[in-house]
Amino acid sequence: MALQSIVARNVPPGETAVVTVGTFQSGIASNVIPQSAVMELTVRAMKPEIRDLLIKRIHEITEFTAKSYGATSEIEVYDSYPVLTNSEEETAFARALALEVFGSDKVLPSIAPMNASEDFAFMLQARPGCYFLLGNGEKGGKGSCMVHNPGYDFNDDIISTGATLFARLVETHCR
């Protein structure tokens, strides 16, 4: 439970950060005290210094909690995905083109920053670009969940919408 309080107690209001305990595995029988336990966490933050603080606090909490029970702890940190940051110029370009193709009723004015892991972040470290959400369906309807959600269902009806936008982005950029 202490891990779940890290963000609330350590991250300034207005900053975005998440610590998620994704898995907890221990033992194989209900009547045997397990010899070990493994937890896997995801740590996300918009700023590297906030992420570093979260990892530091995870180390402290797990070490002190283990000691309080006469146990030990080990932590392995995998630096996997960097923060995905869009280029302002490329984002303005993609947004203007989406407005031209689909109209203002189909393009959101903006969205709040998201703490999602995405491979495209590596591309944006090498070249300026824009990662955007295409939309997968109406809220509560088919495809309304984000990826990495057990209820996610790709909405085949948006394939032509996506293909149209990507084709126009390439055509316009290559002129």
Automatic annotation (TrEMBL):
UniProt entry tagged with the keyword Hydrolase: yes
Sequence intervals crossing the membrane: none
Source organism, top-level taxon: Bacteria
The keyword Hydrolase appears for this protein: yes
Coiled coil (UniProt feature): none
UniProt KW keywords: Hydrolase
Protein name stated in the entry: Uncharacterized hydrolase YxeP
Species per Swiss-Prot/TrEMBL record: Raoultella terrigena
Phylogenetic classification of the source organism: Bacteria, Pseudomonadati, Pseudomonadota, Gammaproteobacteria, Enterobacterales
Gene: yxeP_2
